[in-house]
Design a protein that fits this description.
The chain is mainly beta and 829 residues long. The two termini are 36 Å apart.
Length: 829
């Protein structure tokens, strides 16, 4: 197995070397590594106690964030430690207001990443579908939402680039990009080790070791472990509790500098991410619907004498015990970066990478019996409880969805400047193979004579068949260029940027299992059993125009127009493998980046508006569809993805302010308003009560996973005390709540009128804090000790961030995490 992993190293080296040999000569200003963020504290490197410079790489070169004409938010290593961020999922509390991160339904092993509400596809957890925000680690695109929840290594910066990044980053960055940059080997002997403990049986340990440079080689090792028991008790003995995790990772990196103008950087990483699902609570009982002139009444379920089924407050114990095992993600990768300064102002780069992952998904988060209506002709396999007297009633739906993926990418870059033009030119080749399968079945049943008592037993599911399976190969080729011209007028205060990228995408695959057998598909007007192929390709050009103006050394304005897109694909939850086209966004943005009061205040603001076309929307049907005029039933909810007609609109505003009134104190605040208007769209599924015909009436569509208003604030205070330092951090994060489903759950089958309104998640307000005693001399050379206590969700605030409902099932949802706290010690030398 180990030999198989390393067999790719030789191909990486050869591909990277060949890439450099074939790269055309271009010009570039010398790239310098960003300043280490973990040593940046309020007032560092400033004799007057002002703010430190933040270095970003958003334009493929290291630049001061204040002079980079892009809306960017940055979390450095200190901010990550202060907020006790162990994985990207911990940023879901709103540290960066325009960034939303949430688990895919109840699965922390697969994440939904969203910037400005653009590119949000609720179910991108499939081989032929992509998210609209690209996540990059050291310049390498992470192709799947699975694997994004792993523990973070020794992070330098997390840069959130807001708005379309189609020119420099390419496909699937229409909402923006999240770029994670880790620390390079320093060539000096260093050690940075942390260990700690917390409630819910939590513990963590990490170590980062740099070895001295020898024979032009610098080596670095990173190791990370973070563990927490579940927060909601699973009453079934021997089964995992809900909402726990066990994450581990190792990373090895070597930096080779055989000459002053050449650098080779090789890294290998491997990670293990085991999580248990979140617990879906029954919040409200079903209400049912009254009969109308065009629709029959829908009866509500009843609670009888079992009130514990309803849990309107955050529960610490589930209503029922269920089978629950860890969902395990395993990922590893190789990266080879080559940098060659072929002339004083010319650098050519190559980034070659191979990654692979496996992810099991065992989702029994819907453990509580849902209070649903009885089975009907339109819904013959529905699970329900207490809708009528008698039984048995099956519930606790276990959803299993393993995924395998590997990807190879090769990117070539020429970065430089010639005279008054700075530019980046490059090309990218990306190849991805993904396969998944899925099965879902109820694991428990209850028998009750009068709806007041239960006999619960586990259902035998050993013989359950795979209900859907597919595989896809994605090939993407991109060529891009961007130039920044500074004309010799007005003291060089104007900077015009022009850029563009051409991309060709192709997806080839097959849906080869539906309901444990070959799918049913129309062939020459007749439905036959056969695998459904996918063979689709698209090409795209994404331009960028940006005009920046330096009013002074501290005031920078910009106006930008840019576009981006998300790839098309196919929905493997569809009985027909329904295909959809790419969606695209075009945005105009104006912004200002300013500093004043002798570099003690930094204020950045951006306003944007634009068009949103061919928006990819999911619609679900209840266990059936009409295929070539024939009704086909299934044991799973079926979902089709369609492109919304017409043009949607996006607009918003973002502001960030940072103030250092005196040495040691830093105050920060940020706010985001994000609005997405999606055209009304026809539900493609036939509706019961409409003679099984599609209702050709466009219905309202909601903005999902995107609060309209979000804000964050922080206070950092550092004071010297007898040779040590006391550091205090507090941050508060607010959002106005968001929808998780695009449309209302019940529409009148004849008129299109809304009969049951989609509920919205609660507003959230989370406060985190950290108190540290740092720079303690331990009497061993320059070794320094830091001891800290931390808390997340300090006031144990609770809110339902995910809420869904139907008239027959009632309201259910996921609550945010309970308060967590702990103590940790860090030693550096």
């Amino acid at each position: 197995m180990i030999t198989k992993k390393y067999k790719y190293f030789r191909s990486l080296v050869l591909a990277g070397a060949a890439g450099l040999a074939l790269t055309p000569v271009a010009a570039h200003a010398q790239i310098t590594a960003p300043k280490p963020a973990d040593d940046q504290k309020p007032g560092d490197d400033q004799t007057d106690g002002g703010l430190t410079e933040v270095v970003v790489t958003a334009q493929k070169r290291s630049e001061n964030n204040q002079t980079t004409p892009i809306a960017i938010s940055v979390l450095g290593a200190t901010a990550i430690a202060d907020r006790h961020v162990q994985s990207l999922l911990d940023l879901g509390d709103g540290a960066i207001p325009s960034l939303r991160i949430a688990p895919f339904f109840s699965r922390p092993g697969a994440l939904i990443v969203n910037v400005r509400g653009i590119g949000v596809l609720a179910d991108s957890n499939q081989p032929a579908r992509d998210q609209g925000v690209g996540v990059y680690v050291n310049g390498v695109y992470q192709g799947r939402p699975q694997g994004l929840g792993t523990a973070l290594f020794d992070v330098e910066n997390i840069e959130v680039l807001k708005g379309p990044q189609g020119t420099l980053f390419g496909r699937n960055t229409e909402g923006g990009a999240v770029s994670i940059v880790t620390k390079l080997p320093s060539g000096k002997f260093k050690m940075n080790t942390t260990f700690g403990f917390g409630n819910y049986g939590a513990y963590q340990a990490s170590t980062h070791i740099d070895l001295p440079e020898a024979h032009n080689l610098s080596v670095k090792f990173d190791g990370v472990i973070t563990y927490r028991n579940g927060q909601v008790k699973n009453p079934q003995p021997g089964q995992l509790d809900f909402n726990g995790y066990d994450r581990r990772g190792l990373r090895f990196e070597v930096l080779w500098k055989p000459a002053p103008n050449f650098r080779a950087d090789f890294a290998f990483d491997t990670s293990y991410d085991a999580t248990s699902t979140l617990y879906l609570q029954q919040l409200e009982a079903a209400t049912g619907l009254p009969a109308t002139a065009t629709a029959a009444a829908i009866p509500a379920g009843r609670l009888a004498n079992i009130p514990n089924l309803l849990q309107p407050r955050r529960a610490s114990v589930a209503s029922f015990g269920v089978p629950q095992q860890a969902s395990v993600g395993k990922a590893d990768g190789l990266r080879l970066g080559l940098d060659w300064d072929i002339a004083p102002r010319i650098t050519v780069k190559s980034i070659t990478a191979f990654r692979r992952l496996t992810q099991t998904q065992y989702d029994n988060g819907s453990a509580s019996p849902s209070l649903q209506t009885p089975p009907t002709t339109a819904n013959p396999t529905a699970s329900f409880l207490l809708a009528t007297s008698g039984g048995p009633y099956q519930f606790a739906r276990y959803s299993l969805a393993p995924t395998r993926q590997n990807q190879f990418s090769q990117e070539l870059q020429a970065i430089g400047d010639i005279g008054r033009v700075k530019f980046v030119a490059g090309a990218l080749y990306y190849l991805e193979n993904v396969q998944d399968s899925a099965q879902a079945f109820n694991t428990l049943q209850s028998t009750s004579a009068d709806g007041s008592t239960f006999v619960v037993r586990q259902i035998d599911y050993a013989a359950q068949v795979v209900q859907r399976a597919s595989h896809v190969t994605t090939t993407s080729i991109g060529v891009y260029g961007q130039g920044i011209y500074t004309p010799p007028i007005a003291n060089d205060m104007f900077h015009l940027t022009l850029g563009g990228r051409f991309t060709y995408d192709k997806k080839e695959g097959t849906l080869f299992t539906v309901n444990g057998a070959l799918p049913i598909r129309p062939v020459n007007g007749v439905n036959v059993s056969a695998a459904i192929p996918l063979n689709a390709s698209w090409s795209r050009f994404d331009p960028l125009v940006n005009l920046a103006v330096d009013l002074s050394d501290d005031i920078h304005l910009y106006g930008k127009w840019s576009t981006g897109y998300r790839s098309g694909g196919a929905n493997s939850r569809s009985l027909t493998y329904a295909r959809f086209n790419p969606e695209s966004v075009s945005i105009f943005e104006i912004g200002a980046k300013t500093e004043f009061w002798n570099n003690r205040v930094r204020f950045n603001v951006a306003f944007y508006a634009g068009s949103y076309k061919d928006i990819q929307l999911d619609f679900s049907g209840l266990y059936e569809d009409i295929v070539n005029g024939v009704r086909v039933t299934t044991t799973r909810t079926t979902t089709d993805t369609v492109n919304a007609p017409g043009t949607g609109r996006v607009r918003g505003a973002e502001a960030e302010i940072l103030v250092a009134p005196f040495r040691g104190l830093t105050l920060g605040a940020s706010y985001a308003y994000n609005s997405v208007k999606i055209p009304n769209t026809v539900n493609p599924f036939p509706l019961a009560g409409n003679n099984n015909q599609v209702l050709n009436v466009a219905i309202p569509i909601y903005q999902v996973y995107t609060p309209e208003h979000a804000a964050s604030g922080s206070i950092d205070y550092e004071v010297p005390l007898d040779g040590v330092k006391i550091r205090t951090h507090v941050d508060a994060n607010y959002d106005s709540g968001f929808y998780v489903n695009y449309n209302d759950p019940t529409i009148d089958a004849r008129t299109g009128a809304v009969r049951y309104v989609q509920p919205k998640g609660d507003p959230g307000f989370i406060v985190n804090g950290r108190l540290a005693l740092s720079d303690i001399d331990v009497g061993a050379g320059d070794a320094r000790l830091t001891v800290a206590v931390w808390v997340r969700n300090m006031f144990n605030e609770q809110h339902v961030f995910y809420r869904s409902a139907s008239p027959g099932a009632g309201v259910n949802g996921f609550f945010n995490d309970f308060r967590t706290f702990g103590i940790e010690a860090n030693i550096k030398f």
